[in-house]
Design a protein that fits this description.
It is a single chain. The chain is of the alpha+beta class. It has two domains: 116 residues, no CATH class; 126 residues, no CATH class. It has three helices and 18 strands. Strands 5, 6, 9, 13 and 16 form a five-stranded antiparallel beta sheet that branches. A three-stranded antiparallel beta sheet has the order 10-11-12, with no helix packed on it. It has a two-stranded antiparallel ribbon with strand order 1-2. Strand 14 and strand 15 form a beta hairpin.
């Protein structure tokens, strides 16, 4: 019975994690370039085995002790592309990420292409982070420029100034999210390589890939599952109390 209480309690913690994730996704439904979080779960015993790398352990049965959060993946589904009319907005259709530099912290990657030009005529993102070209250099521009589908930045005469740095990863779903729209490479994601299968759309932005209806359904499911586990805990507690009373009456 105590095991049942623990299992149900772990289920409730899992539901809280699901609700937190759904809430965060819904809160960023209007965040440009946001990719929703996808939590995955594993049984408690399985998670501990993998964490300690006990690869030679032999299973002796299917008795479970509840589930815990395994990891959170990035949903790599393309978000809807919407016209903005701003020549400093860029959307990536297909694979790839823009490269942004945080001084002292290194290069980060993002799908959010709502850029601007600062007082030094430098192309930066909405938070002031420098946008990098394909050679890892800063991009300096006036407002008189065009960007073609291949990411080449051209002056009014059609001369190439530079090219936007667009990078892909072997497994982008395992990139480490920093904040809401920035990513760092991990061992599983692989290192950045120049992207090939993409088109740059100037004057457009990529919206978040959060589907409000799907997220609301997930929220309702998690809430109902939480309530069910609550009832399990109450029932198990009542049964345990009754058992203790019966044992006490035998003395």
């Amino acid at each position: 019975m105590v095991r049942g209480i623990y299992t149900a309690a772990m289920g409730m913690l899992t539901d809280v994690t699901k609700l937190d994730t759904v809430s965060n996704n819904l809160a960023n439904i209007n965040t440009t370039g946001y990719r929703k979080d996808l939590p995955t779960f594993a049984t408690y015993a399985e998670r501990m085995i993998y964490a300690k790398e006990f690869q030679k352990m032999r299973p002796i049965g299917d008795l479970e002790h509840g589930v815990v959060l395994d990891r959170v993946y990035n949903d790599v589904e393309q978000g809807m592309i919407q016209e903005s009319g701003n020549s400093l907005d860029f959307a990536i259709e297909g694979e790839g990420f823009f490269a942004l530099e945080i001084p002292g912290s290194g290069v980060f990657y993002s799908r959010a292409g709502n850029f601007k030009i600062n007082q030094q005529n430098q192309l930066v993102n909405a938070d002031g982070l420098a946008v990098l070209d394909e050679n890892g250099n800063y991009i300096y521009l006036t407002e008189d420029f065009q960007v073609d589908r291949g990411g080449y930045i051209k002056d009014p005469a059609g001369n190439i100034i530079t090219r936007l740095g667009i990078y892909a990863f072997a497994n982008p779903s395992t990139l480490q999210k920093v904040g809401y729209t920035l990513y760092q490479p991990t061992q599983e994601s692989g290192q950045p390589i120049p992207a090939e299968n993409f088109r740059i759309m100037q004057g457009y932005i990529e919206l978040s890939n959060v589907n409000a209806v799907r997220e609301m359904i997930k929220m309702i499911e998690a809430q109902r599952h939480f309530e069910f586990n609550q009832r399990v805990v109450v029932t198990e507690d009542q049964m345990l109390a009754k058992l203790m009373d019966q044992v006490a009456s035998l003395r």
